[in-house]
Amino acid sequence: MLELAGTRIVLGLTGGIACYKSAELLRRMLDQGAQVDVVMTEAATHFITPTTLQALSGRPVYLDPLDARVPNSMAHITLTRGADAVLIVPTSADFMAKLAHGHADDLLSTLCVARGEVPLLIAPAMNREMWTHPATQRNARQLHADGVALLGPGEGDQACGETGEGRMLEPGQILDALVAYFQPKVLAGRRVLLTAGPTSEPIDPVRVITNRSSGRMGYALARAAAEAGATVELISGPTALPTPQGVVRIDVGTAAQMHAAAMAYAPRADIFIAVAAVADWAVAQPSAAKLKKQDGQPPSLSFVQNPDILAEVAALAGGPWCVGFAAETERLDEHAQAKRLRKGVPLMVGNLAQDTMDAESARLVLYDEAGAHPLEPQHKLHAARALIREIARRMPG
Question: What is the mean pLDDT of the chain?
Answer without folding.
Answer: 93
